[in-house]
Every structure is written in structure tokens, then in C-alpha cells.
Amino acid sequence: MPEPVTVVLIGPPAAGKTRVGKRLAKRLGLPFVDTDAMVVAEHGPIAAIFAEHGEPHFRALERSAVAEAVHRPAVVSLGGGAILDPETRADLDGKRVVLLTVRPEAIASRITNGKRPLITDLDSWKRLLAERSEIYHSLAGYTADTSSRPIETIVEEIARWVESPKEDDA
């Protein structure tokens, strides 16, 4: 029987981390944990936290959720900005980290729900991605584009990567 694994999904807002994560968890037989949902369940809507207490307060709540989530076998979806925290990046060491990417033209309809306080339009999304892209890529062991391919195909590719022996295990 394979050793329990923690798979962490990172990427920009609207890349599909929650959607892919839920299906990947089912495919791998692991629980699914969404750190944004953890924060919301305990503290209320993220946009309200930003409005009432500011981004630093939200990042502290997010940091706590991430620290709890990544230390048990699960598929864990991180909020887009969670990787900005050096302690969070350290927590990802030794985990199977998957970067979900998406092309700008594919996300326009995904960012209009008002749930993302740092994303007001496509330009703000592009700026955020430019600021974080280097960190995302430095952490990822596997990258999958979610722009237009069927979600089942993406999930199966990630699952095969997760189930394959890690290079340093060989």
C-alpha cells in the first residue's frame, strides 16, 4: 500500500484549485482541504476580512490554516497568495506541490463573482500573476494548465504524477 501523501495545489486566483482539488482528492482517496474555506468557516467571508481588518490580518489567518492543513495526508488547495509567506513555503518542502496555471483569456468569466478582494479585473489578475509567478514555479514539482482541457484529463495527469515514485525516492 502506498505511503499517505500530501498534495498541495497552488496557483493564481481562478486557476481551478478548488475544483481540481475536490476531484483529485476523490481520485486519490484522500480528504480535500481548502485553506480559504477553513478561514471563511472560522472568520467569515474573505472580502469582509480584507475590508474590516486588512490584508495582513487575512494573511495571518491564512497562515494558520495552511500550517494546520499541510501536515496531514490530504489534497490541500491554498489561496493564491498563501505562497507569499516564507513559513508557508517552508511547509511545502517535501510535499507534492502542483501548480495550476490558466491563460488570461480563460479566466475572465471566473473572476467576476466579487469573492476575490485583490482581483477587480483582468489587469489586476495579470499584475498579481506577474508578482507571484516566480515563486509559484519555484515551488512546483508539477504544472498543469486548466485553461481549456477537460478537468478529468487534468486530474488523471496529476494523479499519475502523484502516484509515481519521487525522483529522490529512487
What does this structure look like?
This protein is of the alpha/beta class and about 170 residues long. The protein has a single domain, classed as P-loop containing nucleotide triphosphate hydrolases (Rossmann fold, 3-Layer(aba) Sandwich), CATH 3.40.50. It is about 50% helix and about 15% strand. The protein has eight helices and five strands; from the N terminus they run βαβαααβαβααβα. It has helices at about 15-30, 35-45, 45-55, 55-70, 85-90, 105, 120-140, 150-165; strands at about 5-10, 30-35, 75, 95-100, 140-145. Helix 1 packs across helix 8, helix 2 (about 35-45) crosses helix 4 and helix 3 crosses helix 4 (about 55-70). The model has no long low-confidence stretch (mean pLDDT about 90).
- In terms of DSSP E residues, the strand content is 5-15%
The level of helicity is 40-55%
Rounded mean pLDDT is 88
CATH architecture: 3-Layer(aba) Sandwich
Short characterization:
The protein is of the alpha/beta class and 170 residues long. Helix content is 50%, strand content 13%. It starts with 5 loop residues before the first strand and ends in a 7-residue tail after the last helix.
Descriptive terms for the model:
170 residues; alpha/beta; 5-stranded parallel β-sheet
Give the helix/strand layout.
Elements: E1 6-10, H1 17-28, E2 32-34, H2 35-43, H3 46-53, H4 55-69, E3 74-77, H5 86-91, E4 96-101, H6 104-107, H7 122-139, E5 142-145, H8 151-163
